[in-house]
């Protein structure tokens, strides 16, 4: 388990902090909450987009000497034999394959290119789930399909005796907006009421405040 945060993750954490401080953990509107709960929780994106630190395998059919496995450089490009530097970051694997095919057509007949992402380093942190606040061990963990609120709380070592369990909040970014979703953690842990044991989405942050004395 780790407490490292990426820049996007840190930005969301800061947003969560500002929201919490300004609005006292006020939940978002019912419509926004329903919209946030209706999104696909298995993945964070509809289509994979390449980024720096990803590693791709470029295969050119019947041209093994042109097939390579390379990382996407910090400038977002990869180097391909005959073609030279090609922009990869911000594009889908299929779009990258189409571009390389078009460039290779000047050198070989009817090139067929496929792109396989062999390492998805650019999504290592954007797909993490964070648990902060009154837990034994605040954590940042990779998302797993089927993960729920209860799973991440247990993964954080459980809550502290000072936790205001039913004031917990799940923060989810949807279309650029952070949605605050109330979670009744005491009902889940102590009463067996799992109505708010929501499925966790990549990038979610669960915040558990402390009680006011």
Describe the structure.
With 213 residues, this protein is an alpha+beta fold. The protein has helices at residues 7-23, 30-38, 93-104, 149-155, 185-191; strands at residues 54-60, 68-71, 77-80, 84-87, 113-120, 128-133, 139-142, 168-174, 177-183, 205-208. The protein has a five-stranded mixed β-sheet, sandwiched between helices. Strands 2-1-5 form a three-stranded antiparallel β-sheet, covered by helices on one side. A hairpin with a 3-residue loop joins strand 3 (77-80) and strand 4.
Which descriptors would you attach to this protein?
three-stranded antiparallel sheet; five-stranded mixed sheet; 5 helices; single chain; 10 strands; 26% strand; 213 residues; alpha+beta; elongated; disordered N terminus
